[in-house]
Amino acid sequence: MRSPHSRLALFAMLAPLAAALAASPLVRARGRAAGAAMPFRPGEALVYQVGWMSMSQALTANLRVMPRLDFYGDPAWHFQAVAHSEDPLRYALVLDDQFDSYAGARSLATRQYEMYLNEQGKQSAQKLTLNARHPGTEMVSAPAGTRDPLAALYALRANNWQRAPRMLSPVFDGRHFYQMSAHIVAAHDSVVVPAGTFDASRISVSVSSRRLSEPMNFTIWLANNASRTPVEVDAIVPIGTVKGQLVRIE
Asked: How far apart are CA 103 and CA 196, in angstroms?
């Protein structure tokens, strides 16, 4: 699960896509105005269980909206995801990873993406800035509006799916670029997860690139509440089937 596919799946999966997301989602929001109020707030913390193949809880993932900040002169969101492998997977794969995304306050396009990986006792850290040079980081040239998987997940939440039923965006997982397209499939699904039962919108997400023989497909359910909370993500990716479910809101 160390491949870039695993991280994209983790985040899309909720973030939890992920690594998630996993493949997570993206957006060049065609509908909701970029400057509109966001459905999430600093201090929000979401906890997910992530199942992989026959293991119902292979990982736990925590998503947090950190305090907003001034990022080199511009206001920005700071999103953070922390993932840990759980037994029985942890017997074979010790994984304790953290991802930090700094995204434009209005567009949610990635400004800087940081990966702190601790897998099988091997630690690595990488700080990537998109189309800018900042001290201590590596610059990556990216198409306008590119989002990392974590920022993309929050961008999915920011979209008003009833008014803008389709979204497109480039996404960068820290190594490779992808094109993501998303559209609403159902406006009202009843979704049962450990955190409870939710009325949710079902969103279909497809992630493609020249590197992939066929697209990776995800389904994400966003609660029909003021926060548009991601309650479940199902994915079929090169590493197998993945399911992320909301456990609690802290």
From this structure: 30
What's the pLDDT tens digit per position in 163-210?
Answer: 999 999 999 999 889 999 999 999 999 999 999 999 999 999 998 888
Bridge partners, residue 218, by sequence: 205, 235
Residues 6+ apart with CB under 8 A from 97: 7, 19, 82, 83, 115, 116, 117, 118, 119
Residues 101/90, Cβ–Cβ less than 8 Å: no
How far is the first Cα of the chain from the last one, in angstroms, to the nearest whole number?
28
In angstroms, the CA 45 to CA 43 distance is 6
**How high is the pLDDT of residue 69?**
92
Phi, psi for 124 (deg, rounded to 5): -150, 155
The number of C-alpha atoms within 13 Å of 15 and in the hemisphere containing its C-beta is 35
The amino acid at 74: D
Q: At which residue do the structure tokens 């049962």 appear?
A: 192
Cα 147 to Cα 108, 125, 193, 225, 226, distances in angstroms: 7, 19, 28, 24, 23
The CATH number of whichever domain residue 70 belongs to comes to: 2.40.360
pLDDT, the chain, mean: 84
Q: Please give the backbone phi and psi of residue 195, each rounded to the nearest 5 degrees, phi first.
A: -80, -10
Q: Which two tokens stand for residue 93?
A: 């794969």
Distance separating alpha carbons of residues 178 and 157, to the nearest angstrom: 19
Domain that residue 113 falls in: 4-249
pLDDT digits 0-9 by tens, 74-131: 999 999 999 998 998 888 888 899 999 999 999 999 999 999 998 888 999 999 999 9
Q: Is 77 left (phi over 0), alpha (psi -120 to 50) or beta?
A: beta
The model carries a pTM of: 0.86
Tokens of residue 11, six digits: 């985040």
Number of compact structural domains in the chain: 1
